[in-house]
Specification:
The structure is a single chain. The protein has helices at 18-31, 49-55, 82-87, 98-103, 108-120, 133-137, 141-156, 182-197, 201-206, 217-224, 241-250, and strands spanning 7-11, 39-43, 62-65, 92-95, 124-129, 165-168, 208-212, 231-234. The radius of gyration is 17 Å and the shape is globular. With 254 residues, the chain is an alpha/beta fold. Helix 1 runs parallel beside helix 11 (241-250) and helix 5 crosses helix 7. Strands 1-2-3-4-5-6-7-8 form an 8-stranded parallel barrel, surrounded by 6 helices. The longest helix has 16 residues, at 141-156. Helix 2 links the parallel strand 2 (39-43) and strand 3. The chain contains 11 helices and 8 strands. The structure holds 2-phosphoglycolic acid (PGA). 2-phosphoglycolic acid is lined by residues 11, 169, 174-175, 212-215, 233-237.
Length: 254
């Protein structure tokens, strides 16, 4: 059995202000003096990365980003490059979050290009996959996940998943308060591992697969206890220090 260190990653989305993130970061840092088994990652809005890099320089919490451009540099107004994220000590970057897929035109192909661009500069992509409610109801969950994963495998190759993280986030559970049951999460996580194992067993065993979608202190333990769940991607609950800390401490090494 491969040991996989869990990850608990905060996705702050477009929330917070300098005034609100300072006490939030202080709360999280002091709460993590009691160490979590998990690697803790915080993905703030870009403009707060400098503040994060500064405040986290002496902590083990790792900065990450919510998105990046698939291009290197140039006349692309409003975009942020992979190298810029490295300048602010980012180690991880979320790619293919369902909000970007649904609202900002991040197609499977673009997500795959962003995944590769991140790895070009040794950023670890957290690749989000997940089905919409209608897709689950019509029995298409596995087909959707397979399509989203295959787009990246085809472009980047299976070996690229040695340095990547996957987050399964059923779209119907994001920000809705409705969480997948631990069994529903486990079923899809096992399917993701199986899909990867068809290409490479070792990669499938090693990769960390996070669950995301209304994870909170009250349900984290039962979700994280599932064998193929290696931590979580946390939205709303990551904006409250106590709530987020409980989730971090709920993640146990396998
Ligand atoms: P949520 O968001 O925890 O607020 O549901 C998770 C995510 O979108 O990553």
């Amino acid at each position: 059995m491969t040991q996989r260190r869990p990850i608990v990653a905060a996705n702050w989305k477009m929330n917070g202000s300098l005034t609100s993130i300072r006490p939030l970061l202080e709360g999280i840092c002091s709460g993590l003096e009691v160490k979590s088994d998990a690697e803790v990652v915080i993905c703030p809005p870009y403009v707060y990365l400098a503040e994060l890099a500064d405040k986290l320089s002496k902590s083990e919490i790792v900065p990450g980003a919510q998105n990046l451009s698939h291009l290197e540099s140039g006349a692309f107004t409003g975009e942020i490059s992979a190298d810029m994220l490295k300048d602010f000590s980012c180690k991880y970057v979320i790619v293919g979050h369902s909000e970007r897929r649904a609202l900002y035109g991040d197609t499977d192909g673009l997500v795959a290009a962003k995944f590769m661009r991140a790895q070009d500069v040794a950023l670890v992509p957290i690749l989000c996959v997940g089905e919409q409610l209608a897709e689950r109801e019509s029995g298409d969950t596995e087909a959707v996940i397979e399509r989203q994963l295959n787009a990246v495998i085809e472009l980047a190759g299976i070996e690229a998943f040695n340095d990547a993280v996957i987050a399964y986030e059923p779209v119907w559970a994001i920000g809705t308060g409705e969480t997948a049951t631990p069994e529903q999460a486990q079923e899809v996580h096992a399917f993701v591992r199986l899909l990867l194992a068809r290409h490479d067993d070792a990669v499938a065993n090693k990769i960390r697969i996070l669950y995301g979608g209304s994870v909170k202190a009250a349900n984290a333990v039962e979700i994280f206890n599932m064998v193929d769940v290696d931590g979580g991607l946390i939205g709303g609950a990551s904006l409250d220090a106590d709530e987020f800390l409980s989730i971090c401490h709920a993640a146990r090494g396998s």
